[in-house]
């Protein structure tokens, strides 16, 4: 960037769209100084969140979430596996986060986004350590068969706070999940019983009768805050993410306990008080997210 | 895969795989079979189009036809890859991909590598490439769910996304396929019908200019039948074009009222029509 004074003069003469592109940092800081963010939000507020069923007919459970314009589509497919010998009573979960080229101008076919596997790993760790899913519930026949849960999350529109939106969609997809009813065939394989033709099968063949839903004890919710100078800016957009270098992601579960906290480096030293502020902001955010999700779940039951 | 442990255990889907043994009911001159979704032979599924689905893109569109769901994003015109030679006219770059849950069994989605180039060929003739020299327009499609007739739906959706991005075009491209099943012609087939086909015909058509940008025929066809199929197809393309045009008009009237539009005008793409 040019000399500060020079650019300051230029800035006052230019229309806002040009200055946003040419001097993004100055443009941004001039907004912060009047306690507002370029998209019109007050400094401490997150964008509106939306959650609903994903309507993916080929999946056992799916959810669509939006945070601002960041959009995620999560789908769960259940497959059968032989559990490992040391954990014969447990199923397994695999999480994959995808950023297809449609989601952002920065991703091109054949050149996958670097951040995608990082988010996959974070999601997996968070889901496993939050205690949301009891892996023992995924067991079908001890030592012989258990559910392998494939959770695939696609980012359809990337505008910042990808992890928050992805985790929200994962929590929703697990809440909406309908476990298929399976029976044991003569060859020793488990197959789905079609919903209509239940009458032909005797009940004793059904392996997981009356167990169509997972008991979800506590859902994890997260909020990412960008730290810029002395500002704490929750739920950054992709434009803001390019300007800030320090982020703190806090994950809390529905009972308010801290599940995890990521601060992947960055030049701004996060003070203890800053971290506490981030946690407080996440706690506020969690109530909103939980409320929207509860509403979506009741709406689904009505249908 | 962020699976557990190093070796991912071998898994299988519990979905019934009985489809193989089922004899196609469509053969043998029987005229009285019904389509699995209860449609008439020459009846298309209802189509839902929406533009502006992806904010990060210059233009985008979402289409839902039956169970087939597609999103197309358009990026650019932007700088061509460094390795590209100088070009007086613009370049078009297309890519079609599927989600891992697009098909009933996970990870069994066909790769359909040829779709990217077929999409390119179907759109190329409709875009005024001279209007963006030296640069590239990227058209990326993601099939969220595959429910049959994927390629024609991707093509129609892509042309709508291009219009949303304000890329200059001669006309919208509407695309429809007709399959031959025994003695019958079936329009806008679903996946199950596609797997029993004896022949397929796909037309991508510019309804206002009455020009075909792409015609693909596979399988065995008699001259009479192919004429009939083409007429059915062109008729359906015309109607689909109307729906797409209506979607654009709606989007334009909404954005002029609320003025939520991004910088750079929308809907410049139809000036040539």
UniProtKB/TrEMBL annotation, chain A:
<dbReference type="GO" id="GO:0071035">
    <property type="term" value="P:nuclear polyadenylation-dependent rRNA catabolic process"/>
</dbReference>
<keyword id="KW-0694">RNA-binding</keyword>
<dbReference type="GO" id="GO:0005730">
    <property type="term" value="C:nucleolus"/>
</dbReference>
<dbReference type="GO" id="GO:0000177">
    <property type="term" value="C:cytoplasmic exosome (RNase complex)"/>
</dbReference>
<dbReference type="InterPro" id="IPR015847">
    <property type="entry name" value="ExoRNase_PH_dom2"/>
</dbReference>
<dbReference type="GO" id="GO:0000467">
    <property type="term" value="P:exonucleolytic trimming to generate mature 3'-end of 5.8S rRNA from tricistronic rRNA transcript (SSU-rRNA, 5.8S rRNA, LSU-rRNA)"/>
</dbReference>
<dbReference type="InterPro" id="IPR001247">
    <property type="entry name" value="ExoRNase_PH_dom1"/>
</dbReference>
<dbReference type="Pfam" id="PF01138">
    <property type="entry name" value="RNase_PH"/>
</dbReference>
<keyword id="KW-0271">Exosome</keyword>
<feature type="domain" description="Exoribonuclease phosphorolytic">
    <location>
        <begin position="219"/>
        <end position="284"/>
    </location>
</feature>
<dbReference type="InterPro" id="IPR036345">
    <property type="entry name" value="ExoRNase_PH_dom2_sf"/>
</dbReference>
<dbReference type="InterPro" id="IPR033196">
    <property type="entry name" value="Rrp43"/>
</dbReference>
<dbReference type="GO" id="GO:0034476">
    <property type="term" value="P:U5 snRNA 3'-end processing"/>
</dbReference>
<dbReference type="GO" id="GO:0071038">
    <property type="term" value="P:TRAMP-dependent tRNA surveillance pathway"/>
</dbReference>
<dbReference type="InterPro" id="IPR027408">
    <property type="entry name" value="PNPase/RNase_PH_dom_sf"/>
</dbReference>
<feature type="domain" description="Exoribonuclease phosphorolytic">
    <location>
        <begin position="47"/>
        <end position="180"/>
    </location>
</feature>
<dbReference type="GO" id="GO:0034475">
    <property type="term" value="P:U4 snRNA 3'-end processing"/>
</dbReference>
<dbReference type="GO" id="GO:0035925">
    <property type="term" value="F:mRNA 3'-UTR AU-rich region binding"/>
</dbReference>
<protein>
    <recommendedName>
        <fullName>Ribosomal RNA-processing protein 43</fullName>
    </recommendedName>
</protein>
<dbReference type="GO" id="GO:0034473">
    <property type="term" value="P:U1 snRNA 3'-end processing"/>
</dbReference>
<dbReference type="GO" id="GO:0016075">
    <property type="term" value="P:rRNA catabolic process"/>
</dbReference>
<dbReference type="InterPro" id="IPR020568">
    <property type="entry name" value="Ribosomal_Su5_D2-typ_SF"/>
</dbReference>
TrEMBL record, chain B:
<comment type="similarity">
    <text>Belongs to the RNase PH family.</text>
</comment>
<dbReference type="InterPro" id="IPR050080">
    <property type="entry name" value="RNase_PH"/>
</dbReference>
<dbReference type="Pfam" id="PF03725">
    <property type="entry name" value="RNase_PH_C"/>
</dbReference>
<dbReference type="InterPro" id="IPR027408">
    <property type="entry name" value="PNPase/RNase_PH_dom_sf"/>
</dbReference>
<keyword id="KW-0963">Cytoplasm</keyword>
<feature type="region of interest" description="Disordered">
    <location>
        <begin position="1"/>
        <end position="32"/>
    </location>
</feature>
<keyword id="KW-0271">Exosome</keyword>
<feature type="domain" description="Exoribonuclease phosphorolytic">
    <location>
        <begin position="43"/>
        <end position="167"/>
    </location>
</feature>
<dbReference type="GO" id="GO:0000177">
    <property type="term" value="C:cytoplasmic exosome (RNase complex)"/>
</dbReference>
<keyword id="KW-0539">Nucleus</keyword>
<dbReference type="InterPro" id="IPR036345">
    <property type="entry name" value="ExoRNase_PH_dom2_sf"/>
</dbReference>
<feature type="compositionally biased region" description="Polar residues">
    <location>
        <begin position="8"/>
        <end position="18"/>
    </location>
</feature>
<dbReference type="GO" id="GO:0034475">
    <property type="term" value="P:U4 snRNA 3'-end processing"/>
</dbReference>
<dbReference type="GO" id="GO:0071051">
    <property type="term" value="P:poly(A)-dependent snoRNA 3'-end processing"/>
</dbReference>
<dbReference type="InterPro" id="IPR020568">
    <property type="entry name" value="Ribosomal_Su5_D2-typ_SF"/>
</dbReference>
<dbReference type="InterPro" id="IPR001247">
    <property type="entry name" value="ExoRNase_PH_dom1"/>
</dbReference>
<feature type="domain" description="Exoribonuclease phosphorolytic">
    <location>
        <begin position="171"/>
        <end position="232"/>
    </location>
</feature>
<dbReference type="GO" id="GO:0071028">
    <property type="term" value="P:nuclear mRNA surveillance"/>
</dbReference>
<dbReference type="InterPro" id="IPR015847">
    <property type="entry name" value="ExoRNase_PH_dom2"/>
</dbReference>
<keyword id="KW-0694">RNA-binding</keyword>
<dbReference type="GO" id="GO:0006364">
    <property type="term" value="P:rRNA processing"/>
</dbReference>
<dbReference type="GO" id="GO:0000176">
    <property type="term" value="C:nuclear exosome (RNase complex)"/>
</dbReference>
């Amino acid at each position: 960037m040019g000399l500060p004074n020079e650019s300051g003069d230029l800035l006052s003469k230019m229309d806002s769209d040009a200055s946003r592109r040419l001097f993004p940092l100055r443009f941004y800081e001039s907004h912060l100084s009047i306690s507002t963010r370029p998209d019109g939000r007050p400094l401490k507020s997150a964008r509106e969140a939306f959650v609903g069923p994903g309507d993916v007919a080929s999946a056992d459970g799916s959810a669509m979430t939006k945070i601002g314009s960041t959009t995620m589509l999560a789908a769960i497919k259940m497959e059968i596996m032989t559990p490992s010998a040391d954990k014969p009573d447990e199923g397994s979960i695999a999480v994959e986060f995808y950023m297809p080229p449609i989601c952002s101008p920065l991703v091109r076919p054949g050149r996958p986004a670097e951040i995608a596997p990082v988010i996959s790993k974070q999601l997996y760790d968070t889901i496993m350590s939050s205690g949301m899913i009891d892996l023992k519930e995924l067991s079908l026949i001890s030592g012989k068969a258990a559910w392998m849960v494939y959770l695939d999350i696609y980012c359809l529109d990337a505008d910042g706070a990808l992890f928050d939106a992805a985790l929200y969609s994962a929590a929703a997809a697990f809440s909406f999940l309908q476990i298929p009813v399976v029976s044991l065939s003569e060859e020793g394989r488990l197959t789905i019983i079609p919903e209509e033709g239940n009458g032909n099968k005797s009940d004793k063949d059904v392996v997981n009768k009356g167990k169509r839903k997972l008991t979800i004890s506590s859902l994890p919710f997260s909020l990412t805050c960008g730290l810029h100078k002395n500002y704490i800016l929750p739920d950054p957009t992709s434009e803001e993410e390019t300007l800030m270098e320090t982020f703190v992601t806090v994950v809390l579960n529905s009972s308010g306990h801290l599940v995890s906290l990521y601060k992947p480096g960055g030049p701004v030293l996060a003070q203890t008080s800053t971290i506490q502020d981030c946690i407080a902001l996440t706690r506020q955010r969690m109530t909103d997210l939980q409320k929207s999700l509860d509403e979506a779940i009741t709406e689904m039951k009505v249908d | 895969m962020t699976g557990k442990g190093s070796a991912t255990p071998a898994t299988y889907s519990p979905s019934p795989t009985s489809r193989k043994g089922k004899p196609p009911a469509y053969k043998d001159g029987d005229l009285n079979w019904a389509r699995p979704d209860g449609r008439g032979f020459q009846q298309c599924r209802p189509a839902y189009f929406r533009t502006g689905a992806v904010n990060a893109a210059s233009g985008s569109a979402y289409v839902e036809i039956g169970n087939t769901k597609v999103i197309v994003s358009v990026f650019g015109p932007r700088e061509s890859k460094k390795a590209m030679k100088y070009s007086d006219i613009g370049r078009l770059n297309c890519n079609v991909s599927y989600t891992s849950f697009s098909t009933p069994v996970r990870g069994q989605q066909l790769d359909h590598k040829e779709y990217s180039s077929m999409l390119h060929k179907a759109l190329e003739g409709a875009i005024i490439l001279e209007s963006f020299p030296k640069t590239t327009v990227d058209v990326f499609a993601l099939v969220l769910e595959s429910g049959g007739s994927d390629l024609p739906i991707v093509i129609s959706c892509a042309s709508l996304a291009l219009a949303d991005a304000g890329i200059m075009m001669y006309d919208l491209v509407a695309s429809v396929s007709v399959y031959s099943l025994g003695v019958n012609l079936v329009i806008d087939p679903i996946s199950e019908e596609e797997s029993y086909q004896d022949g397929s015909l796909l037309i991508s058509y510019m309804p206002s200019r009455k020009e075909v940008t792409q015609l693909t025929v596979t399988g065995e066809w008699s001259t009479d039948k192919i004429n009939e199929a083409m007429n059915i197809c062109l008729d359906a393309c015309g109607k689909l074009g109307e729906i797409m045009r209506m979607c654009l008009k709606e989007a334009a009237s909404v954005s002029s009222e609320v003025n939520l539009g991004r910088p750079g005008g929308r809907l410049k793409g139809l000036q040539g029509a």
